[in-house]
Amino acid sequence: MSDYEIRLVVNGKSETVTAEGGETLLRALRRMGHADVKLSCEGGDCGACAVILDGVAVNACLVFAVQADGCEVTTVRGIGTEDGLHPIQLRMIEKGGVQCGFCTPGVIVSAKALIDENPDPTREDIQRGLAGNLCRCTGYKKIFEAVEAAAGDIRKGDGA
Fold first, then answer.
1. Residues 6+ away with beta carbon under 8 Å from 139
2. Helices 141-156, 104-117: crossing angle, 10 deg rounding
3. Cβ(51)–Cβ(57) under 8 Å?
4. Pick from 88, 94, 98, 57: which is nearest to 74 by CA?
5. Residue 138 confidence (pLDDT)
6. Residue partners of 58: CB distance under 8 A and separation at least 6
7. What pLDDT, in 10s, does the model give residues 5-45?
8. In terms of CB atoms within 10 Å, which end of the chain has fewer, N or C?
9. Helices 87-95 and 104-117 meet at what angle, rounded to 10?
10. Domains, the chain, ranges and CATH?
């Protein structure tokens, strides 16, 4: 397979990577040092590798790196900072939506994309929006509560 030079804006920073034609965005991002994009099923079943690609949450394992050339990618590290957590991150901690933490980056990324698209999601909207994110620890109730609370915070102007 041929190699391609891919240009991305990852978390606001321009980056370039050489990728093989069949390489996934997940693999390319991890080679670039973005270990916050979790490597898990590599079949689109778990959502651990979710990123926001030009405003849409996608599983990075289902996107070829060449398809993302010229795109903006947001990983969980591009959402909030250590000194200023995003409301979704704060509420996930507060509501107990984080346990082992493996699914957490993908859940936070998917929740951010959901709230960006729909600032006032119902519980059903949240369930649909996070349907591709598997969590084996929390049972989802606390995650859904965290997303509801974060959406309320954002609507009130209490966060990003």
1. none
2. 40
3. yes
4. 57
5. 79
6. 50, 51, 52
7. 999 999 999 999 999 989 999 999 999 999 999 999 999 99
8. N
9. 130
10. 3-78 (3.10.20.30), 87-156 (1.10.150.120)
